[in-house]
Design brief:
8 strands; 2 domains; alpha+beta; elongated; 226 residues; five-stranded antiparallel β-sheet
Length: 226
């Protein structure tokens, strides 16, 4: 071929088109997994959750004992509670489809009622000269903090607006349920206060002390809660 001769049609232009297409092909290859991940995140295409599923590995270290406390409580009763929490958060001037969350959560937990025997002082126990009668003055029973059971608690449904879903992608703690747990514990605590747990705890504590003191030779045992 002579210098300066025209290139036959279809040779150099074809190579130039292939060179220019490389950035487009690379962008498409990189964008496809991202698009599929977003579709699976928003549950727009069923089956993608299995494709991009997460594998859980427990790499936690051993638990460290920080402190030990002697307990002087006698837990006389415990109540098991279950509540359905329906928590909704709306944004002003925005529809729920854009901004807002609603969580339906079934929470199971327990509350214990105890008598603090560690507060018994010298004047709290009175024994007659024959050591056949004893009178005890104890503080009233109190309620422990509600303890949620994670194995029996679960979310029934979660509805989130588009902005909330996008925020979960960049959040360190997506779909945070701390507000739901706090509300569930509060409601369970209120239900425990309205129940007869403290009265039952005092009754069972009295029965325990009466049995123990009578085994020691006391014939008459009286317990007052003050």
């Amino acid at each position: 071929m002579r210098d300066g001769a025209a290139t036959p049609p279809g040779e150099r232009p074809a190579r130039g088109r292939i060179t220019r297409r490389w950035p487009v092909l690379v962008a498409v290859v990189l964008a496809v997994p991202v698009v599929l991940l977003l579709l699976g995140r928003f549950s727009l295409t069923p089956g993608l959750d299995d494709l991009f599923g997460e594998e859980t590995r427990d790499r936690s270290g051993p638990a460290l004992l920080k402190s030990v406390q002697d307990m002087h409580r006698y837990e006389g009763a415990a109540g098991n509670f279950q509540i359905v929490v329906d928590l909704e958060k709306d944004a002003r001037l925005l529809p729920d489809a854009i901004r807002g969350t609603r969580t339906l959560y079934v929470a199971s937990g327990s509350v214990g009622a105890y008598v603090d025997l560690g507060k018994i002082g010298e004047g709290s126990v009175t024994v007659d000269e024959k050591r056949t009668s004893a009178t005890l003055r104890l503080p009233h029973a109190r309620l422990e903090a509600p303890a949620l059971d994670p194995e029996k608690s679960y979310a029934v449904s979660k509805q989130r607006g588009l902005l909330d879903r996008l925020g979960d992608l960049f959040s360190d703690n997506p779909a945070d349920e701390r507000a739901v747990h706090a509300l569930a514990a509060k409601r369970i605590g209120e239900a425990a206060r309205e129940s007869d747990l403290t009265q039952r705890a005092e009754k069972n504590t009295t029965a325990m002390l009466e049995g123990m003191l009578r085994a020691l030779g006391f014939q008459h045992v009286t317990v007052h809660y003050v």
